[in-house]
Amino acid sequence: MTPLRTLLAAAAVVGLIGTGAALRPSASASPSVLTDGSIPDVAERVVDSVVNISSSHVVAGGPAALDPFFSDPFSPGYGSPGDRKAMSKGSGVVVTVGGRILTNAHVVKDAEDIKVTLHDGNDYDAKVVGVDPKADLAVIQLKGSLPALKPLTFGDSSTLRLGEVVLAIGDPFGVGKSVTMGIVSAKGRVGMKIEEYEEFIQTDAAINPGNSGGALVNLKGELVGINTAIASNTGGYAGIGFAIPSNMARPIMEALVKDGKVSRGYLGVRVATITPGIAREHNLPAPRGAFVSDVEPDSPAAKAGLAQGDVVVGLNGTEIKSSEILHNAVATFKPGTTVDLAIIRKNGNRATLKTRLAEMPSDDEQASQPRGRRQQQRPQRLQQRPQQWP
Hints:
alpha+beta; Thrombin, subunit H; Pdz3 Domain; 3 domains; 6-stranded antiparallel barrel; 14% helix; globular
């Protein structure tokens, strides 16, 4: 079990909840009015589709002070500075009858040995199929002879409504598989700085360490999210949990299965979110959008004529209200795709630029770039005032 990865946001700690450190919507509609017994029926139907995942990896160097596993009292290695192997626990969702499981990347990160406990109570070995750390998703595959499995059906997370009842299933604090109930508190949460790509469903269903990689389901028993993070001052449940929506998780899962990696579109700009207040203060040409503060030389953005000081307000007809929305939207397209960018120039003139996206550079490629030219597409976080405006 690893501690939460945390960040300070509005006096709260937002962290991963693992104890290790154009999509394909279904035709489903919103759930019908609840009837007596519907929640137990759904819970009993889906609980066997969620599994417990235990993994281990060797800690480089060994000292407890350098290894976050040993600072976590729920970890088997807690208080044992001489130990060299760290243990991690989390949850996962069975998505095929053949034993494919979707979980969080941080649940199986650097794992050398993975054990999955199925509904029959037995442990089975598993291997990693693919990991996407930028969205915190991973796919693992069970090995050997397996019992009959009950995969969850993917739901269309875009049809979720505020206040809709959802169930969270996982293994909190290692106590065993548990079901909690809550509602959809918000949709499309971005800018949390938990992951590089995020568009979270927020729920008040009780989610705690160990729930990472578990299922968020609607009252049709469909998978609508992968539970990933919480906001808390204590590290435990405080009524604010975050799940990766199924419409984001499913294509990433499919890419990992097919290619072992996720190839994302790359524009080559550094952008910052404009708010009406910032626009008034700095006399900007648009009240909302993604302000272009830097353009990578020879990038798709530069070749299309995008310039410093432009404001991106649309992408293929979709309104762009923030840098995070642009960041996520560009990444959903495959490299080589041509997209239309709606922009407003410094002088207030509107234009549409056709841009052929490149492939997002790997972390190693970005690290080799000169300083100041790294992570060009990743959004900056502007607080009340911009740090620099040209």
